[in-house]
Design brief:
alpha/beta; Quinone Oxidoreductase, Chain A, domain 1; Rossmann fold; 2 domains; 10 helices; 15 strands
């Protein structure tokens, strides 16, 4: 059988587990030109709330009763697609299910994980969307320079847990992270490469930013948005770059309740730049990104912080955790493993 | 004698003519390594209000009693500087005066106008800051593409009057401009290369934008900021680019009265970019920009709209006009002319 999570209802005030329904479908039959994937890992990310609300135009429409969208890592167990041969480990739009029939015409395209010396789960962390997001965000969008004064919000999350390590690997001298609570803040420094942490639950954030950045901020890698972004806008230096990776503080709010920005004019005054991005717009270079990140891992510059839970049943809870603020690292669900897969 | 405008008092609610005082100083003596310039033209621009408030860190500090800052075009009438030979026409930080002693160590550096077949006044319009701003803003910052849906605000102003023409010369198919009043809107279409005009004084601007851009905006070249920028933020397409050239609606307001942006989150949702810039950060390529714009003029693709007034006495009024909203084209003051200059 092929267990699948389908969308049962739209979220109201954030994702909740009862938005999803677990069903058992048949394992799909192989079709001409396609490959049958057995899912090993599935990832969750804040953006999935927007899938559930069907408000993105860069993802397939998601109707009620549809298979929940999401990327995963799996192994090809049967194939009539030359570019997806049996045995290959691929990262693809699998959806929340144990088996998927895919082809190489998916947009964004599936890609084969080419670093067999590294754990397959890394295909959803450092060698997958969150690692690519950190690298593209800091290097291509943020145009990171070694002497930049760098601040990262959502620093203990999937992308944030890699941002300081990737920034250092790219030459940055100092990176400060913002996260909520002493546990996360300790992890920032102990396992995620940050030089200092700001605890937004217990500190006066603007005052702490001023203390850490007396001359202002050159590069802000933002996962949070809202008031925090506004506070940073007031503290940017000339030609600063604000990389909009996410705005988790805003996704749950109706438009009328979203923050109204008081300091946006400072972007103009500082000749600064603010830019959001979608990694799948940059994937013509995915091999180079993947090789670069794999090298960082092998050189000990990047240690993915993966928070694994076991079994496809744990997927809705994993996604809800992201919005409960109690997630550390890249949240991944193990659906099956090498031991379960007989090609 | 050397007439000079000096800053007498700081502006309160915008620039006013009584902020300046006209004095007569001596013509400076030539000094080693320097060149004596006789001023032909001086330009005014909205940013000068920020000089008067002494709130920029990219310009020299401007104290009360100091010579007013500003760029101009003049001819070298005496020189001990090999790169600024007698007879050369230069664009430089002359300040509001009839004669200036400069050297080639000024930052940003003076540059020699190399297109002697074109009027010297163009060195303050299309071959000077406003032309460079249009070209750099649309090409380097805006990454203009031929099929972009392009909107320009402040479209009848110094930069705006060139933006549509430069955009077309770069391949754009359609450009819409926003300006105030029927005279300006007629000029947009008749002499500035716009395909359509939105009159913010008589139209419901958001509704007009929706009518002209049913699929949203790809490239917004903004000289206005504030509410208009917020309205456009709500109407951008995926991967839109917002080029912040100026924010004239905000310069006069104290921070507490500036617009608070409701739609900034849409930048993230659309994977879009907003960027401000200062042309003098891009001047390593000034020869290429200058040659490109001169070619546009010669090919009939760009006709500078210059609004000339006669005599150094008209400078304060020219600057105030920019804030009275009754300026069309590039505002330039003729201080002297070829006929008055005997090298």
């Amino acid at each position: 059988m092929n267990k699948q999570w389908r969308l049962k209802k739209r979220p109201v005030a954030g994702p909740s587990e009862d938005c999803f329904e677990l069903v058992e479908a048949d394992i799909p039959e192989l079709e001409p030109g396609k490959a049958l994937i057995k899912t090993w890992y599935l990832g969750v990310a804040p953006v999935m709330l927007r899938y559930m609300q069907n408000e993105t135009d860069f993802e397939s429409a998601l109707g009620l009763g549809d298979l929940m969208l999401g990327r995963g890592v799996g192994q090809v167990v049967a194939s009539d697609c030359p570019t997806l041969p049996v045995g290959a480990l691929v990262q693809a739009r699998i959806g929340w299910q144990e088996y998927a029939l895919i082809d190489d015409q998916q947009v964004p395209a599936p890609f084969i994980l080419r670093h067999g010396d590294l754990p397959a789960s890394h295909g959803l962390s450092s060698l997958g969307p969150s690692g690519f997001t950190a690298l593209i965000g800091l290097r291509e969008i943020g145009q990171l320079k070694p002497n930049d004064a760098i601040l990262v919000s959502g620093a203990a999350g999937g992308v944030g847990s890699q941002a300081a390590q990737v920034a250092k690997a790219l030459g940055a001298k100092r990176v400060v992270g913002i996260a909520g609570g002493p546990t996360k803040c300790a992890e920032l420094i102990n396992s995620m490469g940050y030089d200092a942490a700001i605890d937004y639950q217990s500190e006066d954030v603007p005052a702490s930013i001023d203390a850490h950045f007396p001359e202002g901020i050159d590069l802000f890698f933002d996962n949070v948005g809202g008031v925090l972004l506004d506070d940073v806008l007031a503290r940017i230096r000339r030609r600063a770059r604000i990389v909009i990776c996410g705005s988790i503080s805003e996704y749950l709010l109706p438009p009328s309740e979203r923050h109204r920005f008081a300091n946006l004019q400072n972007l103009g005054r500082q000749d600064a730049r603010m830019e959001a991005f979608f990694i799948f717009d940059y994937l013509e270079n995915h091999r180079e990104y993947s090789d670069c990140l794999a090298d960082f891992i092998r050189e000990g510059l990047l240690t993915p912080v993966e928070h694994l839970s076991e079994g496809i049943e744990t997927l809705p809870g994993a996604l809800c955790d992201l919005y409960r603020g109690n997630n550390i690292g890249v949240r991944i669900v193990r659906v099956a493993s090498e031991a379960d897969t007989h090609v």
